[in-house]
Design brief:
There is one protein chain. This protein is 51% helix and 12% strand. By secondary structure, it is α/β, with parallel strands linked by helices. β17 and β18 form a beta hairpin. 36% of the residues are buried.
Length: 673
């Protein structure tokens, strides 16, 4: 019901109440006329009592009594008028009841809203403000909401939509207060007053969750304005949903620029496909097929991604950041989709990868199907990654042939084992995804099925149960977490990867390798807030890599209980470590000598080279390019070159030692082993 309709109904009820009031009063005057002659004050009180009783279901003058009183006036000259009044009185007795109910309902509704306002302002001091109302927000609201200490968190939902009374009541029961406010059409002054009215300075979290990335950017700009930023606590956290790369880049630059002039809140961007893929790799690690092998050759990464929508692109991005395991391991990704040429071209522009070389393979991986190969040029990183886009419909029988041919058209020995080490079915259409899963499952029927196969089934929960049941063909296929599984206030606030990234950043900021370098004395949260946004992304990638690849590999290499001792031996060759200050590391050699010694130490050299390669892939996945001069605003970096090339330039030579900081972190955080 619209506000206008509510207003019209209120007007009608007010008019009916006045109409009912008149005959109730006139009937009382005639009925108690004898009392008026004796004592007018008490007669007036009795008449008023009858009026109130008429609205509250218990009139003093019953219909039967009014009729009998009318009969006593049959000879009166006023009989016709009394008769009309009595008839009207009888009708209005019933009208008054419904008017009273309507007014009571409206009164209680207002009281209920006032109650919620006071709850939001006083009892629930650290509340959450959400902008927008859509499927994304519904998932956030339906999932469990964390408690802040002993107080429940109260949610303020800001949107321009109208809600039915039933919906308002349902949301209010969950401590969700609705504000009908179109923030996109308001100017700064009005937005400031609105934020003040909902006590935004007490809010712990703001979530900008509109379906449109540009709308979220608009709200974010409003929150970052000089006037409005004063209304929001600097301890608050703002989450902005953004699923468009170009706009994400604009928001990054905007936040970094504003942060230099204003003491802003903490901030993070999120998108649903990225959360899904992160969670997927947490549950089923990219290298889990050979995680227990110390054979470097077995750590080659051969990934198949079926479907190249938003989820497929996020999967490729995460593979680029997590795949490097050794300095010389091969990384091959096959991407299968129809009309792939256009999607491959968009991909190249999306990441702005001028350092990719795109070629068409005339022969095709499977006869009759085109494919385009992307290779990073050797001017960017060592052992470049190969990405092949294959134009194929998974319904075609040749898809099964592709599974047999595998990466680089080679079978893995004579065993017939599928050479892919990880398969991601990221197709939007559930019907096509299930068909694809069965085709892949068919190829596993003679094997042990230990290659991870992940499938996307987002919306149909009964269909999801099929992959967790006893189906013989699908028992080796796991589910990619659905949006509802990752999109909750709990998950956003307690995202483990961000906590680890902050921890990395804090330790990194305190590490100092040279004597004259002053360590960071800020708290963990202050150090994180002061970070440029691209470094935050780099830290998240490093935290994920550290947990999913680096730690497991070191444990396999040295044994679970010898890792720290072996790392200490490696580090002692190049650094002096002050036991009284675990963050103090002194380099034993100058940069040039450090490099010469490093080249002769194959183990340490490989670790540093692998870390530089991982870092390079991470930047490339975010659209960075190599340039002579570093410029974070334009996503250009002078160190985005092969590891060996770093030593040829004094400007980049000194950065090599920072590739060892991951080892120092591991050594410092012994309790995490």
């Amino acid at each position: 019901m619209t506000q206008k309709s509510k207003y019209n109904i209120s007007r009608i009820m007010a008019i009916l109440s006045i109409i009912a009031l008149i005959p109730l009063t006139i009937e009382g005057i005639f009925y108690y006329c004898d009392y008026l002659k004796i004592h007018s004050f008490y007669a007036a009180m009795i008449i008023l009592q009858n009026v109130i009783g008429g609205f509250l279901f218990k009139p003093e003058i019953k219909l039967e009594a009014a009729y009998k009183a009318l009969l006593t006036y049959t000879d009166s000259s006023y009989y016709l008028g009394l008769q009309i009044i009595t008839y009207v009185y009888g009708v209005m007795i019933f009208v008054a009841h419904f008017c009273a109910l309507a007014w009571i309902y409206e009164f209680l509704s207002k009281i209920f809203k006032i109650r919620n306002i006071f709850k939001g302002i006083s009892k629930y001091r650290n509340h959450i403000v959400i902008f927008g109302y859509n499927d994304c927000v519904k998932m956030l609201l339906n999932n469990k909401v964390v408690a802040n200490g002993k107080k429940k968190i109260h949610i303020h939902l800001v949107c321009a939509d109208d809600f039915k009374e039933e919906m308002l009541y349902s949301l209010a029961k969950k401590n969700i207060h609705i504000h009908k406010y179109d923030i996109y059409k308001e100017n700064g002054d009005k937005i400031e007053r609105f934020l003040t009215s909902i006590k935004a300075d007490k809010a712990a979290v703001f979530i900008l969750a509109d379906d449109s990335s540009i709308n979220n950017f608009s709200v974010f700009q409003s929150l970052c304005s000089e006037r409005n930023s004063k209304v929001i606590s600097t301890k608050a956290k703002v989450y902005c949903r953004c699923e468009d790369y170009e706009i994400e880049e604009m928001i990054e630059h905007f936040y970094d620029a504003k942060k230099k002039s204003l003491n802003l809140f903490d901030f993070e961007m999120f998108n649903i496909p990225e959360l899904q893929i992160r969670k997927m790799f947490e549950k089923s690690k990219l290298h889990c097929k050979y995680i227990d092998s110390n054979d470097k050759g077995k750590w080659d990464t051969n990934v198949l991604i079926v479907g190249f929508g938003l989820l497929g692109k996020q999967a490729l991005k995460q593979v680029m950041e997590l795949a490097p395991a050794d300095s010389d391991n091969k990384i091959n990704v096959d991407i299968v989709d129809y009309k792939i040429k256009e999607k491959a071209g968009i991909y190249a522009n999306y990441f702005r990868v001028n350092d990719f070389e795109m070629t068409k393979e005339d022969s095709g991986l499977v006869e009759g199907f085109d494919n385009w190969k992307f290779e990073m040029r050797d001017t960017v990183v060592d052992n470049p990654m190969t990405i092949r886009f294959i134009d194929m419909d998974v319904h075609d029988r040749s898809f099964r042939k592709l599974m047999d041919i595998g990466v680089e058209s080679e079978k893995n020995g004579d065993s017939g084992e599928i050479p892919y080490t990880y398969i991601i079915i990221a197709i939007d259409n559930a019907e096509v995804a299930v068909h694809c899963a069965r085709e892949i499952a068919y190829s596993f029927h003679d094997g042990d099925g230990h290659v991870p196969v992940m499938i996307r089934i987002d919306s149909d929960y009964r269909l999801r149960e099929l992959f967790t049941g006893d189906d013989e063909m699908l028992r080796y296929i796991s589910l990619i977490p659905a949006p509802a599984d990752v999109l909750s206030v709990d998950y956003l606030l307690g995202e483990e990867l961000d906590k680890k990234a902050k921890n990395f950043n804090y330790v990194y900021s305190k590490l100092y390798i040279e004597k004259d370098y002053k360590p960071c004395d800020m708290s963990e949260s202050e150090a994180w807030k002061g970070l440029e946004y691209y470094k935050r992304n780099a830290n998240r990638a490093l935290a994920a890599y550290y947990e999913q690849v680096f730690k497991p590999k070191l444990r396999v290499k040295y044994g679970e209980y010898r890792v720290i001792d072996e790392l200490n031996k490696l580090l002692q060759v190049y650094f002096e470590h002050d036991e009284s200050d675990k963050y103090y590391w002194k380099l034993k050699f100058k940069d040039a000598e450090f490099w010469e010694r490093l080249k002769n130490d194959s183990e340490f050299y490989e670790m540093c080279k692998t870390e530089h390669r991982r870092w390079s892939y991470g930047l490339i996945a975010q659209g960075w390019e190599c340039a002579e001069k570093k410029s974070p605003a334009w996503h250009k970096h002078n160190c985005l070159i092969p590891f060996n090339e770093l030593a040829k330039n004094d400007a980049t030579l000194g950065t090599i030692k920072y590739d060892t900081m991951k080892l120092m972190y591991y050594f410092i955080r012994k309790d995490e082993v």
